[in-house]
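Morning!

This is the sequence you dropped in the shared folder:
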Amino acid sequence: MKKINCYAVFEGGGIKGVAFAGALQKAEEAGLNFIGYAGASAGAIIAFLAALGYSGYDIYKIINKVDFKSLLNEPTPDELKNLNSILKKAKEIGWFNEKWWGCKKILHAIKLKNHLEKSHNGLLPNAIKRLITNNGLYNKDNLIDILANFAREKITITQLPKLYSPNGANLSFKDFYEITYIDLNII
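The structure's back. C-alpha cells below.
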C-alpha cells in the first residue's frame, strides 16, 4: 500500500479533542503519513502531541487521563464581572468604533479611564491585569509544564538541551522541526 503524505489540521472545541484523537488513529490505520500538524486551542494540544510522535490511541489515553481544564487558573467570578463591566462601558462610549483615530480615540480612552477609576476605586481590575500579563484571562503555566513533560518523554536531552530548561518552554518551532522533521503550526 502506498503511503500518502498529508497534513492534519485540528480546530478548537474542547471535548472535540477526543474525537480528533480517534480520527487521527483511524487515519494512521489507513496508512496516512502525516508530515505536519496544525491546531488551534484544544486542537493545538492534539497537533503538538501528534507531532511529538504520540499515536492517536496514545493521545486518546492522555486526554482521558489529564484534566486539562484544571491546569488553567481561571479568572474569579468578580474578575469576569469587572471585565464585563469595562467592556460594556467601552461599547457605550463607542471605543470599538473603527472610524475613530487620533484625538477622538484619546478622548474616549480618557472617558474609559475615568469610568475605571470611579467604578473600580481607581485600580485596574485583576481581569485586565490577567489580560496583559498572561495574554489572556487564563494563566497557562501549568498547561505549559505538563506539555513540556510530554515532550520530554519523546525528545531526549541529547536531541534538545533547551527542552530541559526550568520550565521547558524555550522550544521554538524551528528547534522543534530540526528535532522531529515534522511541521507544527499553532494558531
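Headline: The first helix runs from residue 16 to 29.

More detail when I'm at my desk.
O.
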